[in-house]
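Field notebook, page 434. I keep forgetting to write these up properly, so this time I am using the form the group agreed on. The chain and the ligand, L-homoserine, are recorded exactly as supplied. Prediction of the bound pose follows.
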Amino acid sequence: MSMEQVNVNIGLLGCGTVGTSLLELIHEQREVISQRTGLVIDVAMVSVRDVSKSRTAPIDPTLFTDDPKQVVESADVDVVVEVMGGIDPSRELISKALELGKPVVTANKELLAAHGEELYALADQSGVDLLFEAAVAGGIPIIRPLRESLAGEPIIRVMGIVNGTTNFILTKMTKEGMSFADALEEAQKLGYAESDPTADVGGHDAAAKAAIIASLAFGGRVNSDDVYVEGITEITPEDIEFAHRLGHCIKLLAIVEKQESNGAESLCVRVHPSMVPLTHPLANVQESFNAIFVEGDSVGELMFYGRGAGGPPTASAVLGDLIDASCNIKRSSAASIGDFTSINISPIADLETQYFFEVEVEDQPGVLAQVAAVLGEQNVSIQSMEQEGLESEARLIFITHKALESSFQAAIGALDKLKIVRNIGTVLRVIGID
Ligand code: NAP
Ligand code: HSE
């Protein structure tokens, strides 16, 4: 029996890195998609900021417009794909599309992490899909597993590398001794970085993804403001070298985990550079690759790995959603995301973890004892210590046992006041040892 053919016209908002790769992929896969699903996907309109720019996308140039509202409202458009980025005007455009009963596919984590709940509710009211597989970890299927396969799983922790640009920069600095600035420039050329790369290097892109993961994995309302964020801009080649000497590498991690805070259950959602043991699987995630560990009470540990940024991998995730949304039009159905509950977000001060830090001190007798005493007063116990002599001073490099963040920060504050301490260098949280 031959499959019923259904024509689906898409309205594309944005034709940059992701939009161009999507148009290429649709062009290449059109026949295969039609054979497998019966869907004949056509592009009805494409909005961009500057219609005069020369473009490589395989598309009739007369379909370009600089009016995204026209795309959303066009009677010829059945599904809206938003790959422009940013909050405004994307929020208004997606809302309008959903109100008009059009399914939306988006890669916009910044928008979903800030206004996801309002948009999911709008999609549910209209009974249409709002799909966003590409918003987290590029080409890796992680949203659908969290929404569907793991919907009943008591998840304990999700941890991973979710920003391709910063992982690329740290890899280049580590393996090739490239400077931060050169590595960032290359990541931008390769289409990994956001239009404003401070979102990547400052940790905010990963924080938006952490908020989305937290909402889906734990069913709670979590937005970007709930995420504790530190980026990688302060990481130096020297830090990377120290980390290696101690058998570690430095990775920007997003971590969402349940914890007890003042006797109540809460969620700790954070993004920061971390020391990762070289033997840990995350240490081998290089370049623009991402990897996400999901730890559940029943399922145990799962790991998702793949390309986390760049046009083709991201377009693959967008196209999967586009086919799903189009099939749902055919079936007159939609996937509801469900309701979110209130959830306690624990402050970073309540975190218990291990720390790496370096202190430059005067090279004289009794110095180590003074530093150890300050740490001891705050209940911070030393796991390992290395000392190296500098010209007129000594550098002490510590890894602590698990300590409470508030106690550790108090110890660092107290160390900074010691007369024998000349400088407190990089401080990093350490994962995966205890
Ligand atoms: P991009 O290369 O900067 O492309 C953005 C596109 O949107 C351009 O075509 C631009 O027009 C258009 N645009 C931007 N603002 C507009 C406005 N106000 N009005 C009309 N058109 C506008 O961005 P991208 O890398 O493709 O990323 C797009 C989205 O996907 C973002 O949400 C991003 O976070 C997300 N994402 C990107 C990646 C990746 O690896 N790049 C991966 C996952 C998710 P012009 O072409 O005329 O400038
Ligand atoms: N700028 C993002 C990154 C794109 O580097 O991971 C993928 O979301």
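OBSERVATIONS:
- The chain has three domains: 6-142+311-331, 149-307, 351-430.
- Residues 385 and 398 are 4 Å apart (CA to CA).
FOLLOW-UP: compare against the apo run.
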